[in-house]
Amino acid sequence: MKVLKIASICINSTPLNFKGNVKNIKRALEDKAVEDSDLVLFPELCLSGYGCEDAFFRNDTFIQSWNALTEILPYSEDRTIVLGLPIFQPPYLYNCMAVIDREKIKCLIPKTNLANTGIHYEKRWFHGASSLFQSQFLSPNDEWIHFGHYILEKSGFLIGVEICEDSWSMNRPAHSYSENGIDILLSPGASHFAIGKREKRLSLFLESSRNQSNLQVFSNLLGNESGRVIYDGGPFFANQGIVVNEGENLSFDSHEFATWECNLTELRSGRTREFRETNPKGEKPNPIPKISLQPLGLLKPNKIRIIDFRGKEKNKVQLTSDQKKDPFIEFTRAVALGLWDYVRKSKTKGYTLSLSGGADSATCAILIALAKKLAIETLGEDGFKQAGFDPDRFLVTIFQGTKNNSETTKTIAKLLAEEVGAIHHEIDIDDQVTGAVSLIEATIQRKITWQTDDLALQNIQARIRSPLVWLIANTENHLLVSTGNRSEASVGYTTMDGDASGSICPLASVSKEFILQWIDHIQLGKNPYISPLSALKLLQTIRPTAELKPLEEKQEDEKDLMPYPLLQKIERNIVYLGLDANTTLHRIKKEEPNISVEEIAKAIQKFQHLFRVSQWKRERLAPSFYLDEYSLDPKSSYRYPILSGE
User: With bands split at pLDDT 50, 70 and 90, how would you rate the model's confidence at 380?
Assistant: First the structure.
């Protein structure tokens, strides 16, 4: 009986941190749970980091990647290891998986289909092959190595490698591999997190493992790798349409893994029953050369080993299958992980937040507190401190009040800070606002009034708050959090150099409607990570407001703009789906029969104007996480001209 033990490992890498990435890979290979694996799969570009961007053009990036690969060679003495790095094969740069075995680099397999949609721009850096090929690569140490597409043979098992976008493309290498009889398909990826994407990914591999009648092994990057993108890890094994084993999603550790022992007889028996001929004319597929790897048991002594995993899952929230699909729970864990990785990789000490008593800043405070909680659960409190963080000072908040703020929002801010364990400050900035206005009145020699200067008087309050909260953040060596959401970004409902100031804007990829629903979800007791909070109960009683106008005017966001659910529908149809105004109007009217055509048309016209004139603001927003099906971040997702005639 031939059995192959495979380990799929997800790694938390950092672009250009070659020493750190190698350290994490070695740590994973030394993990007791995977040390007796015959084959170990790592993610795409895990040695260099996926998000190197234009640093991929630098010669030292692929040279250091190669040097990092050679450091892993000793770990392949008695097993096969597959891991990703950039390879310069003149005149092109390729995104490759290296196959190492018996301390030798057996071959380099390049990616065929390059991701070039949404947040991905791989065609800027890499060359994609138009078809499967075989060639030779002259390494930096003058060794000739197989370069191209091969089937790996290990003790009778036939194995193919397909890299990330290759699995999502219509022109999949797996089709040719399957026609050549592979038993196992390795699918290393850098598949970013987005709400609901895990289920799409599982569906893709379940169906392909069924129609190809083989075992498919998925490995992924993990964590907030390069600032804007969160990778959810989640290794799994899909065998003929069934997930036979799955690792943790959105782990806070440096690596996460899943293992599976596959039986050659069982795999081939299943394929004999289920595999459908792909060519009805009976033409033979183009043969793909095979590369022989170390057979089972050649170097590895038989071991009987008992691993004690008791306590490994201690304190971890165990999600049900329905909870794993819940967008609010996915969002919670993903942003908490993103915030944790962002602060530790930035070498700062925590977060400072201007807590206004509104939904957005409350959401940020809760997620930062959760990032600390989950990190401590993973590292232990001593490990958290050894990483350079003081649990008591990880989150600092401040309420900067004016006469335009209500007592309710002040109370919400104070109560929430207490409930999440933040250090909280309260100050009054009316004197600073009055002083700034008086100084400019003297300069321009006229009175500044609400009748003539409404926007200026609103903005000065937000801009006065910015340097004060920055000062606190600097004294703490903290990152400053900007609390804007995607709805505000789309219509420019933010003050540049005011509330838009910050080092990170974690909510900029989700709508205001989503955030309000997330808070409701918590208060209904549906979020396993967060219990209902008294501050949120009070927050639910008030309407979203910037509180920049006199209280008697009863300012509300939706009066200034439009109802948030309507804004979200317009934004999605026009920006994401690319529909024209007339089609958008008819779609929304069909979905919302109680809203008049005139009201929808007026809202669409207003949105289009605000979206067009607000691009310059979006260009200056703090870095944000990609979380939903689309983002408006011009640096990583949606590009739009600053000046346009639309």
Answer: very high
CA-closest candidate to residue 178, choices 164, 167, 188: 167
Site of tokens 């799969």: 41
The average pLDDT across 518-522 equals: 98
Task: Please state, in angstroms and rounded to a whole number, the distance separating the CA atoms of residues 257 and 64.
Answer: 26
Phi and psi for 355 in degrees, rounded to 5? -90, 110
Q: What is the CA radius of gyration of the chain?
A: 27
327-345 and 512-523 are packed helices; what angle lies between their axes, rounded to 10 degrees? 110
Residue 3, helix vs strand vs coil: strand
φ and ψ of 220, to 5 deg: -145, 160
The label of the residue with tokens 């949609």 reads 117
Percent of the chain at pLDDT above 90? 87
Q: Which residues, including other chains, have CB under 8 Å from residue 442's CB and lie 6 or more apart? A: none
Q: Which residues contact 509 (CB under 8 A, 6 or more apart)?
A: 486, 624, 625, 626, 627, 628, 630, 631, 632, 633
Reported pTM: 0.93
Tens digit of each residue's pLDDT (9 = 90 or more) over 243-267: 999 999 999 999 999 999 999 988 8
Dist. CA 87–CA 96, nearest whole Å: 6
Measured distance CA(630)–CA(632) in Å, rounded: 7
